[in-house]
Design a protein that fits this description.
Length: 247
């Protein structure tokens, strides 16, 4: 049975998949009208199905009325072989870094023009951070994000450099200055931030490579980098090399 639809032959499942498929890296937040248009569905049908998906946790509705992908979809996505494999390989190395530093440790990948957090380990004494597993943040304001941006394709870097937003008063929003930082990151092998995403939080991050390709970044968030930066960089690089060898 195709179900009650204005498009004969389409099933409920195909319409639900069309709604979910309306989201991509360029369309993360959609109004109901945009959702219906991109899914090719009548507005009443889109409204009914979107409501059911929100109730199930597959979509979430923001205070401004726009829809975003829900946590349920993220949890299912983590079961995909690529992300699951990366997290499983990285987990013991991240635990080692956390045990040695007692600081917040991140594993992240690039998701379009943002950084997507796959794992976060922190304790009660860790510096407060705004990241969470499954969340995305601006690449230019985070340590792991700067690493991934430094090794991103030219078109991605160009888009990010053209739209730098200020998160704190320390966020780098000058394209020329950030571009210079990206050159140093590629040269030195690590990135740093100083209260650029959250006041009172600094970070250092390094790339994770599979052969010659940067596939992820791992980082540490601390209150101050002045004294321990070299030690933290070394700990991260050892972990990143271990992860890379097993990928």
């Amino acid at each position: 049975m195709a179900g009650n639809t204005s498009s004969p032959g389409t099933t409920v499942a195909s319409r639900v998949l069309a709604l979910l498929g309306a989201f991509d890296t360029e369309h993360r937040r959609l109004t109901l009208t945009d959702l219906a248009r991109r899914a090719g569905l009548p507005l009443p049908t889109a409204h009914r199905l979107a409501g059911e998906l929100v109730a199930a946790g597959a979509l979430a509705k923001r205070p401004d009325g726009r829809y975003v992908v829900g946590r349920m979809i993220w949890d299912i996505g983590l079961l995909a072989p690529v992300e699951t494999g990366l997290r499983q390989v990285a987990e013991p190395f991240l635990h080692d870094v956390y045990a040695a530093t007692r600081a917040t440790v991140h594993l992240a990948v690039r998701d379009g023009d943002e950084v997507l957090y796959l794992e976060r380990m922190r304790g009660r004494t860790s510096v407060p951070v705004v990241s969470s597993i499954g969340s995305t943040l601006p690449m230019h304001a985070t340590g792991v994000g700067k690493v991934l941006l430094a090794h991103a394709p030219d078109d991605v870097r160009a888009r990010v450099l053209a739209s730098l937003t200020r998160v704190t008063r320390y966020t780098v929003t000058q394209p020329g200055l950030l571009d210079e930082q990206l050159v140093r990151i590629r040269r030195d092998g690590y990135a740093t931030t100083y209260e650029e995403m959250t006041l009172g939080a600094c970070s250092v991050a390094v790339p994770v490579r599979r052969e010659d390709e940067v596939v992820a970044a791992i980082g540490i968030v601390v209150a101050n980098l002045k004294r321990d930066r070299a030690r933290l960089v070394t700990a991260l690089q050892v972990a990143a090399q271990g992860i890379g060898r097993q990928l």
